[in-house]
Amino acid sequence: MEMPSPNPAILARKARLAERLLAVLPDDAVIQDEAETRAYECDALTAYRCPPLLAVLPRSTQEVSDILRICHEEGVPVVPRGAGTSLAGGALPTADCVILGVARMNGVLETDYGNRIIRVQTGRTNLSVSGAVEEADFFYAPDPSSQLACAIGGNIAMNSGGAHCLKYGVTTNNLLGVTLVMMDGTVVEIGGAHLDAGGLDLLGVICGSEGQLGVVTEATLRILRKPEGARPVLIGYDSNEVAGACVSDIIKAGVLPVAIEFMDRPCIEACEAFAKAGYPMCEALLIVEVEGSPEEIDHQLGLIIEIARSHNPVELREAGDAEEAGRIWLGRKSAFGAMGQINDYMCLDGTIPVSSLPYVLRRIGEMSQEFGLDVANVFHAGDGNMHPLILFDANKPGDLEICEAFGAEILKLCVEAGGCLTGEHGVGIEKRDLMLHQYSATDLEAQLKVKDVFDPRWLLNPAKVFPLAVTEGRRTAAMAAE
Ligand SMILES: Cc1cc2nc3c(=O)[nH]c(=O)nc-3n(C[C@H](O)[C@H](O)[C@H](O)COP(=O)(O)OP(=O)(O)OC[C@H]3O[C@@H](n4cnc5c(N)ncnc54)[C@H](O)[C@@H]3O)c2cc1C
């Protein structure tokens, strides 16, 4: 993975920069020691690592503003970081950057049940937002599988989703406002405790902008009343394509389950060995969950089971009680850990129209033969968000390169099928060079102009999202302006 060379003039200014930062931050908020900065050398895409010049851990919007103003004056790049669980290398540092970690900014600033909102600092973990409103019977809907660790700031930057996003939408559908600190230290409020933006919808630009436009320090989120109940059904098929067709038919019928999850045989086998959830051995498993009152659940599950039966399932198991429901989810929730125990894998993330599922799954199977690498599929099928896991041997010379080439072809397939390169994990460095498969040069230029407005000196989160060749001129001009 190519990254721009560090700027020697910035490296030489490390001591002065640290001194200026220490003038506005407490001693424990500036990490200069090389061994300690290694804690920030990568995110969950661990194949690429680089310790930053410095790491800073602010506690307030004012501290973030001071840090950015100083880095702006010094011409030093800044990489915002939440919990570092990005799978796309979105929080990967460069050697001449300051990592700005928001993890210490984890407070709840306001809860307002009457207006169904919560305002939090963006270092707060996703799961602990629901935790803060649980007693009042509320919850925060977006539920990435990493929710125990990942932070709201990272969720906003990546527009994260999760199993329940089929019904509740992804982060952008549950975000009402942000406090954003621009690269020069200016603090702006975008959106607020209301449903619509006055003026241009800049919130939609910030959500999913991968730390390119500013650092989000506070967020106003929509919270929802917990449903009366929920019940999953497990459906097994003897082919991926038939399972894909079943998903497509459920969506076409207009039923709105809260989640439709898909696992294929390699994944089922790994999960069963790991979690012993009692899954049947078949080619493809669906977990479909509905929620509401007992009558609503019965009605929706009735329709789903009828559709499932029309595709001749080899297994159909409705959860009778909470214990059975827990067992149905157990394997799926352990999927990534289970796969990691048996093989090295690369987790892809692309989105397709749901009706293309049978075709895309068949093509992935054919390409797996062509490239000679197995693929395990586990994903949020209801909203067309695919996570093919390409299995490879990290110790076998050449396997990683074949895996990367295969991964690129799968992502291009998603685009050809009418979908896009990014599902929930963003572009980061992982899909940066594939952007030209999705966008024309003119489209990309329009996106770059938005970046120019928010961050004219191109200092925020360098070398992510846009192909390096496309941004080279802007980066060189920014460096020359120092
Ligand atoms: C096991 C596992 C399961 C996962 N499952 C899911 C899933 O189901 N759904 C899903 O969507 N993702 C999933 N992910 C990916 C990841 O958890 C999400 O992308 C998450 O939103 C990243 O949050 P973070 O706080 O860790 O961000 P980081 O990794 O720290 O950063 C991610 C990006 O956000 C930027 N950023 C972070 N904080 C801020 C801020 N305050 N202001 C501006 N920019 C900021 C960074 O610069 C970077 O570009 C999973 C990851 C793992 C490891």
UniProtKB/TrEMBL annotation:
Keyword Nuclease applies: no
This protein's UniProt keywords: FAD, Flavoprotein, Oxidoreductase
Listed cofactors: FAD
Residues forming coiled coils: none
Gene Ontology MF term list: FAD binding; oxidoreductase activity
Top-level taxon: Bacteria
InterPro entries: FAD-bd_oxidored_4_C, FAD-bd_PCMH, FAD-bd_PCMH-like_sf, FAD-bd_PCMH_sub2, FAD-linked_Oxase-like_C, FAD-linked_OxidoTrans_Type4, Oxid_FAD_bind_N, Vanillyl_alc_oxidase_C-sub2
Domain FAD-binding PCMH-type: 48-226
Protein name: FAD-binding protein
Organism phylogeny: Bacteria, Pseudomonadati, Pseudomonadota, Alphaproteobacteria, Rhodobacterales
